[in-house]
Structure formats: C-alpha cells, structure tokens
C-alpha cells in the first residue's frame, strides 16, 4: 500500500523537498515496475492471509479498501484523512492479533488509535511548517493554522496521558502484571510526550515525526526506561 500511495502521489512528491528522494518520485524505480511489485506483494499477502485465517484475510481486505479510498478521495478531506490513517494502525494491531491468535485488548486498540492521531496531527503540523517555508500548497492542511493544530495536539497529549493512566489502573492490567504500581510507568509516558512536543514546537524547520524518534537519544532513553520499568514490575 505504501507503493501504491507513492504512485498516486507521484507528481506531488516530485515537488516535495523531502519526498522527492523516494524511489518512485526520484525515478530509481519506474511506475510500471512499482505497479508490478505492488500488485505481486498484494496478491501474495492476501493469499497467505487467507490460508492463515479468514479473519486476517478480511482485515487485510479492509486495509486495502481504506487505503485505496484514502488515496482517491479521503486524503483530500482535512481531519478525515488523519482519522483514516489512525484507523489503519488499528487494523494492523488486529492483523497481528488474528495472525498470532492473541486477543487484542480494548486498551491497546484505543491507545494505538489515539497515539496515531497524535502523530498524524504532528505530521500535519510539520507539513504546515514545510509549506510556509517553501511556498508549497498542500490540499489537506488548508483549513489549519499553526495555532489551531497546536490546540489539537495539546488536547490529544492530555487525552493520551489520561487514558494511559486509566489503563494502568484497570483491574485487567493489575492482575496481569501482578502488582498495583503499574501507574508508575505513566511518568515515562508523560515525559516522552513532553519531550516530543518540545522538539516539534521549538523547531521552525520541517521535522518528520518518525525521524524524531529515531534520532533523539533522550526520547529513546525515555522509551527504554518505560520498558525496563514494566520488566521490573513484572519480574522483580
């Protein structure tokens, strides 16, 4: 679906100062070759998923459908475009659940959706910064200003923190970990969100949300401490 997305966005990506270096817009891979590769991968994945689980097959079909709808129509509609992308991440969780026969809890689905929304709107904020610095017109950010999208991002930050604390205090989680102190991990979640916001809000240049996580050692340390805290609560 990423391949087909780049095919749909070929002309726009060629004008984008960052995306123009991708394989398809840069010309490293021709559109015809990309179509062949994408189609082959699509049928392989659908075939394998059908063998593994009918539910997994339906999840993949749904994922393909919403991605095609996104590329044709939905990505041009502000807010709806981010909601669709976030729902796609929820479908990925469900795919993993059906593939491994491990039930996905409601908490992980909610947190995945909220976190995807958060990252999606910070990505839109980065697009606004990029557009204003380079004079690029992007259709799905026209209704936003930096001020309005900052309010959305702050609201989602608070919502994610509150929902995460509710998750750590839930009976299901306390019983699974075996200790009532899971809420301690919320400290790292709050610090991680604050660090992430500091980076994107203080920069006047384009910041890819994914690249931030990969390159910022402080954010990586917070994530590591979050994982270690869970391990200590579970096994010590």
Walkthrough of the structure:
- The chain has 236 residues and is an all-alpha fold.
- Helices cover 75% and strands 0% of the residues.
- The chain contains 11 helices and no strands.
- It has helices spanning 2-8, 10-15, 31-52, 54-72, 80-100, 106-134, 146-169, 171-177, 186-202, 209-215, 217-235.
- Helix 3 (31-52) runs antiparallel to helix 4, helix 4 (54-72) packs antiparallel against helix 5 and helix 5 runs antiparallel to helix 6.
- The chain starts with a helix and ends with a helix.
- The model has no long low-confidence stretch (mean pLDDT 88).
Topology, please?
Blueprint: H1 2-8, H2 10-15, H3 31-52, H4 54-72, H5 80-100, H6 106-134, H7 146-169, H8 171-177, H9 186-202, H10 209-215, H11 217-235
Helix pairs in contact: 3-4, 4-5, 5-6, 6-7, 7-9, 9-11
**Helix-strand makeup class:** mainly alpha
Mean pLDDT: 88
For the secondary structure, the number of strands is: 0
Strand % is: under 5%
Describe the largest sheet. none
Radius of gyration over C-alpha positions, nearest whole angstrom: 20 Å
Form type: globular
The N- to C-terminal Cα distance equals 43 Å
Number of helices: 11
Low-pLDDT ranges? none
Taken in chain order, the helices and strands follow as: HHHHHHHHHHH
Helical amount: over 70%
């Amino acid at each position: 679906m990423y391949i087909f997305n780049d095919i749909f966005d070929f002309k726009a990506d060629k004008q984008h100062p960052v995306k123009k270096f991708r394989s398809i817009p840069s010309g490293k891979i021709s559109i015809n070759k990309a179509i062949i590769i994408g189609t082959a991968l699509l049928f392989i994945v659908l075939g394998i998923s059908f063998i593994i689980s009918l539910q997994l097959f339906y999840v993949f079909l749904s994922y393909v459908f919403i991605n095609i709808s996104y590329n044709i129509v939905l990505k041009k509609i502000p807010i709806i475009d981010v909601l669709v992308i976030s729902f796609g991440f929820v479908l990925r969780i469900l795919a993993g659940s059906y593939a491994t026969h491990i039930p996905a809890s409601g908490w992980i689905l909610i947190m995945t959706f909220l976190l995807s929304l958060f990252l999606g709107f910070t990505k839109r904020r980065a697009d606004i910064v990029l557009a204003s610095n380079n004079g690029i017109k992007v259709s799905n950010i026209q209704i936003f200003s930096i001020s309005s999208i900052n309010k959305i991002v702050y609201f989602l930050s608070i919502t994610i923190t509150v929902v995460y604390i509710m998750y750590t205090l839930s009976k299901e989680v306390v019983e699974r970990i075996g200790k009532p102190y899971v809420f301690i991990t919320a400290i790292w979640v709050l610090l991680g969100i604050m660090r992430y916001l500091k980076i994107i809000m203080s920069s006047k240049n384009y910041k890819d949300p994914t690249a931030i996580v990969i390159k910022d050692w402080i954010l990586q340390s917070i994530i590591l401490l979050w994982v270690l805290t869970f391990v200590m609560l579970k096994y010590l």
